[in-house]
Amino acid sequence: MLRSLAHHRGGAVASGLVAFIGTVLVTTMAGLLGTGLADTTIGDDKSFLTQFPIILGGWVVAIVLFAMVSTVGVALAGRVEEIAGLRLVGATPRQVQARFAGETLTVAAIAAVPGLAAGMLMGGFVLDRMDAAGLTEPGTVYAPGIVLPVIAAVLVLAVSVVAAWIGSRTLANRSPVADPEPAAPTGRGRNRPRRIAAALLLVAGLGSSSAVLGMDADDILTTAMTGPAVVLVAVGLCALAPELLLLANRLARSGSNASAHVARINVTVVPRRTRPLVTFLVLFVGVSAGTLSMQGVENGHAAPGGDAQLLAAINYLVVVLLGAFMAIALTNNLMASIAQRRAEFATMSLVGSTHAQTLRMLLREVGTGIAASVVAGTLGAMACVVPFAVAKTGSPAAAFAPLPYALAIVAGAAIALVVATLAGRRVIRTA
Amino acid sequence: MSHPSHAAAPPVVRVRDLRVRYEGEAGPVDALRGIDLDVPRGSFTAIMGPSGSGKTTLLHSAAGLQTPTSGMVELGGADLSTLDATRLTKLRRRRVGFVFQAFHLLAALTARQNVELPLRLDGKRADPRRTQALLDRVGLGARGEHRPHQLSGGQKQRVAVARALITDPEVVFADEPTGALDIRSARDVLGLLRALADGGQTIIMVTHDPVAASFSDQVLFLADGVIVDHLRRPSAPEVASRMATLVESAERAANTVEIV
Question: Which residues form a coiled coil (chain B) (predicted)?
């Protein structure tokens, strides 16, 4: 197993990083939960320090699963020949899935040890910050215990195995002699469940955010309904990544040079090459911009102190944690998907494309993906925050304050462009 | 060994004292050990040799795909050693065509788009009539809108031949162009290359197949990084017989080294 991992270092590092950060986040929440349940914890802090980590921890586990499925899927797409070889010598799809689940478990287990330690330290740090902000009583001391953090780490291991199982399902079940990179458009039948799931998520998210309109401005449910709505809408838009890409490609100004010409064809014919970028960038922009914008509305409305300040702190923490996590998943997936295009870049070079031309082609595709993601992410976030702004201030205007959107868009686009340029340049040069 | 041109016209490819050394785990390996070669314009040259004799290295070095350790390669009068990567790429896309065993077509592009790509990369507009004429010439006039996965191996290779010709190159380099094809498709592709050579196209082809080599004007035999023999107007049995001798002596040499 370890020898196999050594041969696929890129994929292992990507999965390992996601598992590490995931373990840190979930263990942090477990540490806080442990403190909430501890006898030494003072009165009101008990309920806060149990509810907050359970809600946030639940979201983090869901996001880790999502990020891990995508990371494993992208990493395995670079190993189609190996999978075909295993299937040709008689491995069943289940055996192939078990092999990759085992590999991912090994990687996640290696990442879990430092992740557990870092998470326990992080929990102490977060509690310290909360104390400093006056969110907890000064008498409450950090008491994570060992059982809950270990359970959290084991939970991430289990999530990794489930993710590897799901992420490898399609490749393991394919015919071993199927074209590793068919350029044929995906069949209509396969798109349907995805589109239905996306529609359901969007309806659920927009329904949840619209329900706020009938509530009192000071009702804590306004925040509790809008926050998850932002996430649901972002995930729903992620599921529509291929459609978003095609739309952006159709609207893009068609350049006459070869790089733009080939990029345009690539995005139209093989949108899955750019799909991981769109998936994570929509999540990043949607969740960050939505939560920051919501908080902006809240800050303008609420009186300082009390629950409002507490929720503000939680929301900012959510943005920072999820933002960091999405940025890492985005980087991982973008690097892996660029590395898989080595043979294509080599062919470009053989037919006379200079390195600069090939890089321009790649960046044009990435640019289309960024445009699709930031527009979709921004519109999704705005749609969720408008009812919240109306409920809080009586007008939708506060939902359009530009700063939260600008922050999320600039950060997300910068990460995507820098990673694509650096990884693209390296792969193109060595192709 | 030199193969001077038969006419006064300068050779399309001129190679002098070409050497390529790889750093292997068990010490340096000399893939090419001083090759001299002139390829006349309009000729069809086949390069043959046992595995590891250096034929693909020679093709790659002559085509500017690989930087040799020492020696000189001139392509249409341009000394390749004086060009940086970008200028080398530009020279390749304007003056050289490639046909490879693995086809190297871009999966997302149609046959027509693949054929026109070298021109587009050079900032030129493709003339649709010329593309169609080339597709007709390789027998794929009705398949221009097909993508590679919708074509057979032989058809893909014929698209690659059309792509190699779109820029009117001075020389077409073919590396085992029939290696992945069945007998019938291979014969079609070789017949096409022969017809091109008869029309004045210079072709240099690496192959291990004596039948493929018999379509050429002359065969150069490589062994251990040097040209050891050549054969004009070759027939398949003659080529096969010389190859058998070469392989036998290569095996004998390898066994001697092992015993020593």
Answer: none
